[in-house]
Amino acid sequence: MPRSRPAAILGSLLLLALTLGPLGWFAWRPQPQHHQLTFFRPSNSAVAELTQRVRDGESADSLGRIPIELELATKLFGLDHPYNRYDSQAYYTHELNLDLRRSFKEHPDGSWTMRTNAHAMRRDTEPDTTAPDLRVLVVGDSHVDGICNNAENLCAIAESALEAEYPNASIEILNAARGGHSPWNYLGVIEKHLALVPDVVVVTLFGGNDFTDVLLLAHAFEGTNSRGLTPASKARRKEALAKSRDVLGQGYGSLLFFKDRPAELDFALETTTRILDQIEQTCRDAGAELLLLYLPSPLSLHFADPPRGKPEVRAILELSVEDLARSHTLKTSILRAATELGITTHDLTPTLEECADACFWKTDLHLSVIGHQRIGSLLADLLQSLPGAADRLRAPR
Q1: Is 6 a domain residue?
Q2: For the chain, how many structural domains are there in total?
Q3: Can you tell me the distance from the alpha carbon of 95 to that of 66, in angstroms, rounded to the nearest whole number?
Q4: Burial of 312 (0-12, 13-18, 19+ CB in 10 A)
């Protein structure tokens, strides 16, 4: 097992990097002196068990979800390490009350701290027992989770900006994101934290792999079998993995899959739309405003200095201009669908396009401290544009 570079997603213990076969996860395993990147593939028997339970008619909700218990979740999501915690609604979260220093040369301090609270959130403090004037719940994957200190995260940046502008208002922006989460997890996290009565829910959809990460459970809950890559594409994927796991995981693995299985693109969009519809209904019933942020794959942006391995991986995977254009197709399709559902949306592409080289870590292509600053400042502005949130800020209780 090769030793990993110290940069890549040191806090995200389940990075769904989409090497698909039919679906797989890259998982960080804690080691005495360093972290190693290993490929985790859900147990075929576990996938078959879940699929068969659906086929046998087990009672399901409107999305087709059936309960996934601890033993089955461990086989499906690789929960057999100490930084993961099983959750019946979100399937897995961070372990509670983590305080782990991570060496990372690219960070200005040379390291950062993975710290969680008693709600498994990336936050140094607990939610106030008294409801603040504005409480915002943010869900997302490893980019929002953050390869940075909590104070540098986009949620903390937005909270500080609003506190400075509205000093008389009490504000909480809670980071409930988790590395490896997909739209299924986003919905589960929201349902899990409804007891906190958020005023606003922010869903951050990542174009790099969310549309493929959604497929394993989508097929299982439909009682269908997902199809993996063709043998030729598997061989190209293996070669690409040796060149750059990060480029493959942050977008090109997804494009390879849709190149190989184009019919799955419509299924992924349909499933994601159905989940967003359920999220919208859940938020509406709870009296919370909903904001959808679209975070593009860094590989769809223009870098002055292209990410290491990007040209080589594209060539290995034989991705054409048409294949690359699917990133835009996915973005425009899901944003249109969300708007038709009545969801307020915002595309982060222009913001990140302006600072692509500085806004992502060069080592693993996750949002950098600067990227978090840019999005956090923008999020503060976007929250003020929501009618209910604006009223709570301007007229605190």
Answers
A1: no
A2: 1
A3: 24
A4: middle
pTM confidence score: 0.92
- As a whole number of angstroms, the longest Cα–Cα distance in the chain is 62
The CATH number given to whatever domain includes residue 152 is 3.40.50.1110
Tell the residue number behind the tokens 């395993």, with chain if given. Answer: 29
For residue 360, is it within any domain?
yes
Domain that holds residue 375: 14-66+97-394
Nearest-10 crossing angle of helices 263-286, 326-340: 30
| Residue in the block written with tokens 């391995």 | 309
- What is the gyration radius of the CA atoms in the chain, in angstroms? 20
Do 362 and 265 contact (CB within 8 A), yes or no?
A: no
User: CA torsion sign, 358 to 364 to 369 to 375?
Assistant: positive
Instruction: Answer yes or no: is pLDDT of 147 > 90.
Output: yes
Question: In this structure, is residue 77 part of a structural domain?
Answer: no
* Cβ partners under 8 Å of residue 335, min gap 6: 292, 294, 345, 347
Name the band, by pLDDT with cuts 50, 70 and 90, for residue 161.
very high
Asked if the structure places residue 88 within a domain, the reply is no
Among the listed residues 269, 263, 334, the one whose alpha carbon sits nearest the alpha carbon of residue 295? 334
